[in-house]
Amino acid sequence: MKLEFHHINFVTEDVDRLHHFYTDTLGLSDIPISAFPRPKETEDTGYSGKIRFATDGQMQMHLAEKNLDVGFKHGQAINPVERGHIAFRTDDIAALMEILDTKGIPYSDYGTAFAKKWHQVFFHDPEGNIIEVHQQVS
Predict the structure, then answer these.
(1) Are 19 and 52 in contact (CB under 8 A)?
(2) Computed over its alpha carbons, how large is the radius of gyration of the chain?
(3) How far apart are CA 57 and CA 97, in angstroms?
(4) DSSP 131
(5) CA dist., res. 31 & res. 57, Å (int)
(6) How far is CA 132 from CA 82, 109, 120, 125, in A?
(7) pLDDT digits (tens, 9 = 90+) for 56-74
(8) pLDDT above 90: percentage of residues in the chain
(9) C-alpha to C-alpha distance for 50 and 123, rounded to whole angstroms
């Protein structure tokens, strides 16, 4: 199973202000929202909060509108847009989940609820930081 850093997610109540800081002040490049197709939010699944993206050319920043209800809505223990997270990309999400199961680490499997082309799993590290691991799907 291959694992590589992919992005850092910060949550905020003012996505545009944060995006402006990282692109205008620090000089990161904007990533158009069209590069991140999202499923439509329904009563039972999804997230339609504002999201913007920035990059230094290698790592990405995902800047998302804070929403404290996402975990409850999906029946999951972990809410990835409550306080942000760090994300890795893998080539084998099933192997990752097997490792987490073997080690007794609980996780929230959101599948493709937030991103049409990513299967996302979230869990906590030993200090309570939220970790995302996702695999691209077709």
Answers:
(1) yes
(2) 15
(3) 29
(4) E
(5) 10
(6) 13, 10, 7, 10
(7) 999 999 999 999 999 999 9
(8) 88
(9) 23
